[in-house]
Amino acid sequence: MQKYKKISLSVTSIALLGSLLSACGDSTNNNGSSAAPAASAESSKMVKLNIIESGSGLPAPEKDFVRENLNKALNADINLTAYASDYGNQLNVRMAAGDYPDLFAVDKASLKQLSDQGLLLDLTPYFDKELKSVKTFIGDSSLKKGTVNGKVFAVAQAPQAPKATYWIRKDWLDKLQLKLPETLDDLLTVSKAFTEKDPDGNGKNDTYGITGLMGSTGVSLLSAFSPVFGGYGVSNPGEFFVKDGKVVQSLYDPSMKDALSFITKFIASGSVDPEMVLSAGTQARDKAVKGQVGIIWTEWTNLTNVQIVDQIKKVNPNAEWVQLTAPKGPAGQFSGSTDIGKTAGLMAIPKSLEKDKTKLHRVFDLLNYISTGEGSKLVQYGVAGKHYNLENGKVVPTPLMASEAAYTYLYQFTGRPDLEYLSTKFATQFPYIDFANKQSRIQSLNGFLNYPEGYNDADASRYVSEELTKFIYGKRPMSQYDDFLKSLETTMNYKTFLNSANKQLNELGYGK
User: Fold this and answer.
1) CB-CB contact of 360 with 354 (8 Å)
2) d(CA 436, CA 170)
3) DSSP string, 345-376
């Protein structure tokens, strides 16, 4: 019998789900130490640290208990500025003017640009000693995420657990006397039944089988059918992964055409949400809440939030959404792919700081401190004895954690032990979190990549999206798939991207 987790419609209120998850895919490493890292040699000097990043919700300095406690522990005066918008321009202006922050967030593009300009400190030689606690916490694989040309120029946050699975209306299955789908063919059969057999019993032809977010660019393309691609043994369109010991780009895997052909059966059946192509934001979730679809590919956060559960109950008190294990396909059973190169954040240090050893090592002290023991708990949960208590070594939240500690994620510069964190802050939802985390997934590698000169990923991804949409909707015959790849290479400089990506991934140890 298919295993699943169901939503209890009596879920108790979990405050701050959205804000706490704004810093929120894989479980993380944690060295388990309860002691703060050793202070630097010149710790007697109070040091001012200027830090900038993107974010919102930071309280005024005098009300910032995280800042206060970090300052006491590190003998520092930390000035954190979080920009709710326009962070990229703010960073560019400061770097261009030589007004370098002591620690600052970068994305992959700015990491490449600033490191090429010689503005970032090469952190590679520091991880075995000065940043040892950081290295232990984030893991060796995370070091690769901040790497450019073989050198580590940024600290990547520790990995996060994947959140998405298929969810299905169990009450609709029961109404139609259907079992939970175990294969891709079963999934198609159920999707058609949800469309054609009036599963909500209202006598109207107003339901569809399946929906999800169909992204227009990048690896989110056709994510609603991620387990279909997984069932055919390929990652989502445009993703790189290792197959038979070699790096493969999914668009070029022969099984991609087979997966797309199966998806055309879904489209032809009329059971796919007709607005899926244009869906964005919460539109797919809203259809699930309103009882307009019976299967959705989405993250656990979208259907277990207490406000969402209340909305579902108002539409139909008997609605029962359950998580579904990925259906089996010709190549196995995978809930799509998870990008092991992706990180929730990258923090860099300016090269100029190597001239100020005292300040540099205080930044190292900060990064080490928040990566272990009491410092890590501070930036996750707040102050011990106030926002949480330790009972038999386990963090137990107090009511003040929900009301006062929503912003602490802004100080998680090296990340957090994700499953441990989520099990504490979202205990009621943890069965869904754990279910999603335990699903088998193909490991994709795009997050490790830096784009080569002359290649525009936004344009290429848009072209891929447009053409694949034509294939699955029957607007272009699958016999022209190879012509599509040739056009992609000649008009979008895709061959340059493929060669660069393979070289980068080989250098990181993938496919060698």
Assistant:
1) yes
2) 18
3) -EEE-BGGGGG-HHHHHHHHHHHHHTTSHHHH
**pTM for the whole structure:** 0.87
CA distance 337 to 203: 38
Q: Which pairs from 38-41 meet CB under 8 Å and 24+ separation?
A: 39/74, 39/75, 39/365, 40/358, 40/361, 40/362, 40/364, 40/365, 41/361
Contacts of 32 (CB under 8 A, 6+ apart): none
Q: How many residues are present in the chain?
A: 512
Contacts of 113 (CB under 8 A, 6+ apart): none
Please report which residue ranges of 33-156 form alpha helices under DSSP H.
65-74, 87-97, 108-116, 132-138, 140-145
Q: How far apart are CA 341 and CA 358, in angstroms?
A: 33
Q: Give Cβ neighbours of residue 77 (< 8 Å, ≥ 6 apart).
A: 46, 47, 48, 49, 71
378-to-51, 107, 369 alpha-carbon distances in Å = 18, 25, 10
Run means of pLDDT, 10 residues per run, the chain, 512 residues: 44 38 39 43 81 97 97 97 96 97 97 97 97 96 95 97 96 98 98 97 96 54 89 96 96 97 96 81 89 95 93 95 98 95 97 97 98 97 97 95 96 97 94 97 96 93 93 96 97 96 96 82
Give me the phi and psi of 510, to 5 degrees please. Answer: -100, 130
Structure letter (DSSP) for residue 5: -
> In this structure, what DSSP letter does residue 384 have?
B
